[in-house]
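Revision sheet: structure tokens.
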Amino acid sequence: MKLKKIIMVVCCVIIASMGIALTGCGNSSDKDAGNSSGMNVESSTETNAESSTDTNVESSTETNDENRYLGTWAATVMESDEGDVYDVEESIGAYEFTFNADNTFSGSINGDVSDGTWELTEDGVKIMEPNGVSAEFTYKDGELLWKIDMADVKVTCHFVKKQ
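Predicted:
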């Protein structure tokens, strides 16, 4: 009975949180239209002036890291801290994210689609909705991991890149 209750709570929280995350409040602003990377052009120029060799190495690494995330990622399983594993599609339905080269993304849960922007973090990627809702994913062993902390249960949702 406890397992059923945990599954129900996890499903409800994930559906509610993704409903919030995937509900946009309109189109994203065009303030960065000329600069889709989100970088401040001035600071980028200053960095290049300070050390062109270091910047070239960083740019190359950043491009490789960024390319790792491009494409569509599908949620496969949810794993509780207690070690219980649940199939995402059976629990909440089809759940995917597509990361584009222009740092935009689209997300879908059972056909409900939303979009926003994404950026690299130290350990993975962060997605941001136009309404300010965000989530961080950690990259590990070819998967994106999204840790969800609830009052009684902690869950990790695993995403794998679709081929």
